[in-house]
UniProtKB/TrEMBL annotation:
KW Protein biosynthesis (keyword) present: no
Family: Belongs to the class-I pyridoxal-phosphate-dependent aminotransferase family.
Protein species of origin: Sphaerisporangium rubeum
Domain Aminotransferase class I/classII large residue range list: 65-408
Name by which UniProt lists this protein: DNA-binding transcriptional MocR family regulator
InterPro entries: Aminotransferase_I/II_large, Class-I_PLP-dep_aminotransf, PyrdxlP-dep_Trfase, PyrdxlP-dep_Trfase_major, PyrdxlP-dep_Trfase_small
Length: 418
């Protein structure tokens, strides 16, 4: 678990044995290494461990019987469509419904602008596939979503991080980074950003900065990829307007039902200017022919027949209670010198440890005390983040969150006196 990645020399299944196929992989396979989060899953899923590591939505809160019934009705009434191949762009009716969902974030788009994908993770893969040649630069917040970093590595992108503070990406740093890259003759293809309730930092880009970031990118000819799976999971007031709501020509928006409904359906989407959308459809067809008609129609039926806005509201209340449990426990229990973000939505808190502590070194001790987190280094492509960690509050019940924070605070306290 704490081993350094060894770039394909070993596989998980083979344990310590040398990978016999190592000389035959394509160069891009070198970048495909298990994320720190993946390695953590086995440990964190032990029942005695309080996992503040994963980002699993609390699907237990869904009306499972109702979902079962609507799936049965779907097969009875539209089985021959649900069980057939579909179009590469995705079910037209679902694309209309997706536009209705996006209107909540101020986005005005039509079904022909949307491509349905296998979660937003596949949208990330496709967008990277159509834009990135080996060595091209992708800008990403520092820290950034681990799954996106994995995709960028798989396509041999060079990731350059732009710092954030508690108001999100810092526009001045973005300008400085772009200037430095231009001076070095490096080609920047896009800015990848999670502007709302960011994973892993839990911060949200302010309105003023949204305008600045869009303006800077437009002027520099850098596309913005807005990844927004948490946008509707805010704890106070109305949803933020998406970046895409302000700039239809230079923003590709990625959305997902994974957090507002359930990740098991694997339904996400990309909303893109038409030339990019056309390439995405071709890339989609080459990857999987078409998305599963079955799960697309199931999600469509859920949206049609269920009070989905109410369900999202009740998810928000549930996650707000857990966020509060975590923040209150951190305030009560963490030793001086620890700092953390205060998310207004989403799943994650980002905590920075006192000077000199290393979160990766701390992890085995934390696991021995039955609590897990994700070390900060997993969220950077350049090895930064050693003093930070991501703490999730989405899955454990509030009492377990408090207990997890108590255990973690004990481990950090012990480390400080050593
Ligand atoms: N982007 C971000 C920021 C995420 O946190 C996740 C899931 N953890 C994804 C994309 C991928 O989600 P999915 O493929 O389930 O839509």
């Amino acid at each position: 678990m704490t081993q350094e990645p060894d770039h394909g020399r070993r596989t998980a299944a083979q344990g310590s044995r040398i990978d016999a196929y190592i000389d035959r992989y394509a160069a891009r396979a070198t970048g495909m290494v298990a994320s720190e989060i993946r390695a953590l899953f086995a440990v964190a899923s032990r029942p005695e461990v309080v996992s503040l590591a994963g980002g699993m939505p609390y699907v237990t809160a869904l009306p499972l019987d109702t979902v079962g019934e609507l799936v049965a009705d779907l097969v009875a009434q539209r089985g021959t469509v649900a069980l057939q191949y579909g179009s590469g762009q995705g079910d037209p009716h679902l694309r209309e419904q997706i536009c209705e969902v996006m209107r909540l974030e101020g986005i005005d788009a039509g079904p022909d602008d949307v491509v349905v994908t296998v979660g937003s993770q596949q949208a990330l893969d496709l967008i990277t596939r159509i834009f990135i040649d080996p060595g091209d630069v992708v800008l990403a917040e520092g820290p950034s979503y681990v799954g996106a970093l994995g995709t960028f590595a798989a396509y041999q992108a060079s990731v350059v991080h732009v710092p954030m503070d508690d108001q999100g990406l810092i526009p001045e740093s973005l300008t400085e980074t772009l200037t430095a890259l231009a001076a070095a003759g490096r080609r920047v293809k896009f800015l990848y950003t999670v502007p709302t309730f960011q994973n892993p930092a839990g911060v949200t880009l302010t309105l003023e900065r949204r305008r600045q970031v869009l303006e800077i990118c437009r002027r520099a000819g850098v596309l913005v990829v807005e990844d927004n799976p948490y946008g509707l999971l805010g704890f106070d007031g109305e949803p933020m307007r998406a970046l895409r709501a302000e700039d239809a020509d230079n923003v590709v928006y990625l959305g997902s039902f994974s957090k507002t409904l359930a990740p098991g359906f694997r339904v996400g989407w990309a909303l893109a200017p038409h030339p990019i959308k056309d390439k995405l459809v071709l890339a989609m067809e080459s990857a999987v022919l078409s998305h599963s008609s079955f799960t697309q129609l199931a999600v469509g039926r859920y949206l049609e027949t269920q009070p989905w806005r109410e369900q999202i509201k009740s998810f928000c209340e549930l996650y707000r209670e857990r966020r509060d449990a975590q923040l209150n426990a951190l305030t009560a229990l963490m030793p001086p010198g620890c700092h953390w973000t205060r998310p207004a939505g989403g799943f994650f808190v980002w905590m920075t440890l006192p000077e000199g502590l290393d979160s990766k070194a701390l992890l085995p001790r934390a696991v021995a005390e039955r609590v897990a987190f994700v070390p900060g280094t997993g969220f950077y492509a350049d090895g930064s983040g050693a003093t930070a960690m991501r703490l999730s509050y989405c899955y454990p019940e509030p009492d377990r969150i408090r207990e997890g924070v108590r255990r973690l605070a004990g481990v950090i306290q012990q480390e400080l006196v050593m």
